[in-house]
Amino acid sequence: MTEFFRWLVFLMFVVLAPPVSVGIIRKVKARLQNRIGASIFQPLFDLLKFYSKGETVSEVTSWIFRSSAGINFALVLIIALLVPWVQFKPHVASADIFLVIYLFAFMRMMTVLAALDAGSAFGGFGASREVTLALLIEPALVLCLASLGVVSRTSDLEQIFSFANLALSNQPGLWLLAGSGLFLTSLVELSRMPVDDPTTHLELTMVHEAMILENSGRNLLLVEYTHALKLLVLFGLSAQCFLHAIAPVWQLPAVLISAASGGAVLITLALVGVQEGLSVKLRWTRLPEFIAYAVTMALLSVLVAIAGRLGS
Amino acid sequence: MAGVLIPHSVYLLWSAFGVWGAGAAGAVLTGQKQYHKLYSGVLLSGCLLLLGGLIGCWPANTSWTSDFVFFGLAPLAGRVDPLASVFLALLAVSGSAVALFSPGYLAHLGQRLHPGFYWACLFLFMLSMGQVILSANAITFLVFWEIMAVSSVLLVATDHARHSARLSALIYMGATRISTALLVGGFLWLNYLSGSWRFSDWHLSSAAALWPAALLFLGLCIKAGIWPFHVWLPYAHPEAPAPVSALMSGVMVKVALYAMVRLIVLGGSGSQILAYAALCLATVSAVWGVLFALMERDLKRLLAHSTVENVGLILMATALSVLLRAAHLPELAALSLAAALFHALNHGTFKSLLFLGAGALDSSTHTRDLSFLGGLARNMPWTMACFFTGAVAICALPPLNGFASKWLLYQTLFHTAFQAATTPERAIALGLVGVLSLVGALSLACFAKAVGIAFLGKPRSDAAARAHEASAGMIAAQALLAGCCLGLGLLVPQILECLAPVLSEAVAEPVVTAGFFTIPQLVILAAGVALFGLARSVVLRAQGPSLRSYVTWECGYGDLPARTEETGSSFSQPIASIFAPLLQYNVWTEIKGKDKRHFPEVIEVKVLMVPFLERHLYQPAVAAFEEMSKALVRVQTGSIHLYLLYVFLTLLVLVWVGVRL
Questions:
Q1: Which of A27, A128, B140, B251 has the lowest tally of Cβ within 10 angstroms?
Q2: Inter-residue contact A98 to B407 (CB < 8 Å)
Q3: Residue A204 banded pLDDT, cuts 50, 70, 90
Q4: Are residues B627 and B496 part of one domain?
Q5: What is the pTM of this model?
């Protein structure tokens, strides 16, 4: 019965939380800029609006264009089920690191192909930039997770992120490094500031928005929802790392862990809002420098994971 | 036959080779006549006989020695066991696809093809690859290895009216010569050490066997296309007709890897130096291959470079298994070897599929240059669907087979990172996880480019706009291989169980493969399909008048021509600029006109890329060789008097040597 409620709560969370989390980031950013900003539910209303709107599809497109939205939607839901981005996620088997990484890669493949499908120069630019950024962050993303896995001797994400895992219970440094690495790579993967400006209307500067320029109506609904859930999952994952990092200092009772994990996600989202309010978009040519920080974090966590076991 | 008890299925196996041999003889006799369907039937029936024989033999370990065929030093000897069966099955499946594909494809070559020549060489090529896999002694191996090399060189030169085909055949022939020379050296040395030509008598575990093992390794590396010996690959594979490229890239390089596993890994080599050298070469191959694949604008050259990457991954897993076996981690060694063998099998299927797709595209549009393709998804939907499946498989995306083998490799490295004894070993393993993910991201970029630029968007030339779907046979061939990709992806535990005898032999203890692959690919596929169906029926369902078809957004300028689209070169430009020093990548731009700042009349952009290895390693080597030949010209003048003098002097020297010794 408790398992049933767990699924119910989780499913409701998966349906409603993604748009709201985008709303939270926007609200924090607006307050920092001395604006009142839209309600945090505005992205949800936007999705409802997209549902009732008509859809325009380019004559040039093939089956890839409309299917990619559906495929990505399916993939992101599978990922959300596998990745322990909140502690009250129901248990599923084989939440493997490398499986998750390659499911994300599948999403990227479909997004890039859909962007190329309409034959627009904007889509092409965005796609080309997306794969470039992806190859720079991919090693960092994998190494952050793998170094956590190496210390806990398993590649199962649920076991790695479980609070019952003793191998990682007293490793705040490693959690902090891996969490920062994940956070920085997530900024790139999700096309947030300072890598890409999700609010701009100048197509030439954009990555993600340029790729989805052709999408409209219900297709856009799926794309926006998918992106929001991906955002929640990735930022949620780094939030869990930060929570693990402070856990030894602030011994949590087991009942509060679920609530705390939700709170950590909220705080991380607010942090993204603050970060977006303060930073400016970097020039394209300077992005490798920014990504170098993420790679450094990943390499440091590898170092801790390997050297931390020198004695054993 | 000397074998005591030979199961009937082995005769089935032999009959496949008989059918192919008869096919070759028939093709020579019919010459110019276009009996494509007949020979494709012969090829297919041979493949089916082979497959039937393999299923019948499984998992027997049968060997035979012929009383009739004797190659001077040793008789024709063969052996069929699980390892050989796996690679023969790959040969049979790829061969069947090639048989289905050939008639439709050959039609577009028209007069440029000599049918008898093509089919005879193709039958010999198939026959020799099969026999190399079956061979049980060095002499049999070398005889068929040479037939394999010669027949494939001739097939590369099929379209020999073109200069590029002749050049490619020449480069490839040079590579095969060096490869065979090294192999002969290694075989002679091992024969000297063991006094036998039989592979089963050779043990490479002793220190004395290090050098012959190194010779064998280098010779096989050349044939497999490992960096820095891979340079022949991007020449030879694209120039051959598509079915031949599929066989060369899908099966022939695997035969070299098979020989590596058979002779060096199962031969018991435990040399750390050799294994670490192999690991280094493999890592460089993987990164180098995919990076150059990404830069290519010729679709088949792109695929050839990507073969270098995948062969690198297979060699990486093989080398790891030797290292782990030496480090007394048998379970990981078995996992690693399973990754190597399974990836060889998988790469064989999806690379054959992709080469056939490129061939279908070539036969329809008469170009392989990505800058002249585009928009083919509408005219060639089936080819596109199959090529897309192949791309998903080769990018290691779940739930297809590419993911399974790459996952096994990831798991090997990941487990080594905490089970290995020393810190440097653990660091290397975790570092390789990072390299592997970089290679994965690059290959995704590469195949997103291949699919996206060739099949999607607007057509970039009239030829692409007028393209038509390939013939039914060509589609069937691709669909067969695409089905294999899915099947292999869903049946991973079963396939691994088939590999178990080989793994047990390699690590010299029983191996249970049940726990190797823990990802429920079928469940993921089912969940994905169900969720996709949900999205499709609830959200994306057809909306009647509210679903409007219109031009692509062009900022209100009016319908833009295809020239404004992203090209293959511009797609990979950001990555090229990051790796510019390695790729020797330069973009040269010239703007002409009176007031060129505001009213340019001509804008010219050229991408300059110098192949690094060819410029800095092979060109100097070839130049030095030519200089040496020039020096020899002075000796060989064409004067008969001088030659008589040489004969006389040689005689004197020999007499002197004879007297003195």
A1: A27
A2: yes
A3: low
A4: no
A5: 0.94
